User: What shape does this take?
Amino acid sequence: MPLLFNLRHLEDKPLTLQGELTPNELQLNDLDELIEVKTDLQYALQVERHNQTVLIEGRLTLALDCQCARCLNPFRKWLELDPWNCAIPLEGEEKVRVENDCVDLTPFVREDILLAFPQHPLCKAECRGLPMAPPAKAEPSSGTSQTGSDSSAWAELNKLKF
Assistant: This one.
């Protein structure tokens, strides 16, 4: 069920919203090959109306099951947006769509979560990546000397004078 609130409930006092949203409701599946969302988003929000704007403040918490971009080991990263703030206009060019006096916050929550995703998730900041394989012995190719002095095209480029 999407994260909805009724505008009529805001006429007298602020509204408190607490609960969970599934990854399917947030449409967070298959967005990144290194990040997977398997758990529900936890939210605790305070919603207030000020003239023709709805202000939302609160906290969003989500566990991300990641693969390290360097070593490919799995790890869990907690994404916490605290404080999370959002201002939703009820009038003007960027006004939110209102259906049966209800406003859906799901697209706003989804957008801010996606912006907070790590671009290159790392299991540890000092992760060195996959272990290096020992260098294989290269067979000399045709056109190079057996001594290895001219074994590289870089050696020829280093002789150039500019």
The radius of gyration is 27 Å. The chain has three helices and eight strands.
